[in-house]
């Protein structure tokens, strides 16, 4: 049998309530003490049970919070994958909203993209799901909350504009680059309020969306730049094909030319066409504008010249035809300055037409003269009064023409090379051959500008007959 004293000792050893020796204690006192020990043991057990239950509840809540956080993170990760699975994030909006429904409770949702700018807050809907409100409510809310252009997250327990109890969560889709649009959640299905946790989730989603829009914008720019680059390469090929591959050689006519574009493609054009052993036709033209349009106009000029030069009875007829063609076929804000020359070494005659081009130095038997613009640039009006300059020489004729890239070349101080420097240099070199004259001018210009960037093409054409 279990001894009452053994029971007492075991219970007291667990609870450690009584400290005295039991030798002098009666059996009745021991029984009373056992009851006391049992009562305390029950209290302790109940307390322990309560603690276990409380801990279990805390652990359960923590587990639920961890599960919810995991679900939120998984959803945001899935949304991120959706956004970056395509070049255009607009294509994934439907799937994004469906994933959001797993973690955020809402009745109505609108995802809008602002048009061109945020000045008037107009937008195009990328996604609409309206069950308890009409679309007419949405623009008014956007204008109400963002009228000061302070694009921040709006968390409101009610709709202050429409005096409704619907909770509102409005989050801008914005980055350092641009304000792209917004996500609006209007009302919750359980009629409660949107919480800070909802705000945090939606801000993470809109951050991913804004990054997707930025990436799309960057890629579109790169594609556009690549297209422009390809167009410029094509235009450069056109331009290079237009310029003479070699300078024609005649018995008593010497010529030389130089061309350098300030950009990938410029608007300058020159040509030298040998008509026979005694006659040389030359042209130097400057098309207003740059790039592909200028290259195409240059192509037209060359095509017209090639097709008409043999048919035209005079340089005047050729220039008039070209002006007529250009005035009908190029944009109103485009024109072509040009200088034409037809040199006949047998007859020792020269014909020049200066259509709005630069002053051009000429030397007739060593005597200095200037060919000045006598008409408007080509392509402005159909009835352009182009005047032919006629010259005759006995011993020699020198002609040096150029585009603005020569006289308007600027140095680091902003000073221009100017016509006077060009004139002085040519006068010093009149006895030299054409290659030397051209080389001397280009070297002088380059030495003048040094490392200063240039913004216009450099073209030079020199012809001499003797």
Care to describe what's here?
This protein has 466 residues and is of the alpha+beta class. The chain has three domains: 4-54, no CATH class; 89-220, Beta-Lactamase; 244-465, Phosphatase 2c, domain 1 (4-Layer Sandwich), CATH 3.60.40. The protein contains ten helices and 15 strands. It has helices at residues 4-15, 27-83, 93-100, 137-146, 196-242, 291-308, 315-329, 404-407, 418-428, 434-449, and strands at residues 108-114, 123-129, 154-156, 168-174, 179-186, 253-260, 268-274, 279-287, 336-344, 349-355, 360-364, 367-371, 388-392, 397-402, 458-465. It has a five-stranded antiparallel beta sheet, sandwiched between helices. It is elongated, with a radius of gyration of 45 Å. The model has no long low-confidence stretch (mean pLDDT 90).
What is the element layout, followed by pairings?
Layout: H1 4-15, H2 27-83, H3 93-100, E1 108-114, E2 123-129, H4 137-146, E3 154-156, E4 168-174, E5 179-186, H5 196-242, E6 253-260, E7 268-274, E8 279-287, H6 291-308, H7 315-329, E9 336-344, E10 349-355, E11 360-364, E12 367-371, E13 388-392, E14 397-402, H8 404-407, H9 418-428, H10 434-449, E15 458-465
Antiparallel strand pairs: 1-2, 1-5, 3-4, 4-5, 6-15, 7-8, 8-9, 9-10, 10-13, 11-12, 11-14, 14-15
Helix pairs in contact: 1-2, 2-3, 2-5, 5-6, 6-7
Write down how many β-strands occur, each being a DSSP E stretch of 2 or more residues: 15
Largest sheet: 5 strands, antiparallel
Q: Helix/strand/pairing class, anyone?
A: alpha+beta
User: How are the strands ordered across the major sheet?
Assistant: 2-1-5-4-3
Terminal-residue CA separation: 149 Å
Please name the CATH architecture of the largest domain. 4-Layer Sandwich
How many separate domains make up the residues? 3
Q: CATH homologous superfamily of the largest domain?
A: PPM-type phosphatase domain
Number of helices: 10
> Unreliable segments (pLDDT under 50, ≥5 consecutive)?
none
CATH top level of the largest domain?
Alpha Beta
Protein name: PPM-type phosphatase domain-containing protein
Domain PPM-type phosphatase: 250-465
Organism: Tepiditoga spiralis
GO molecular function: phosphatase activity
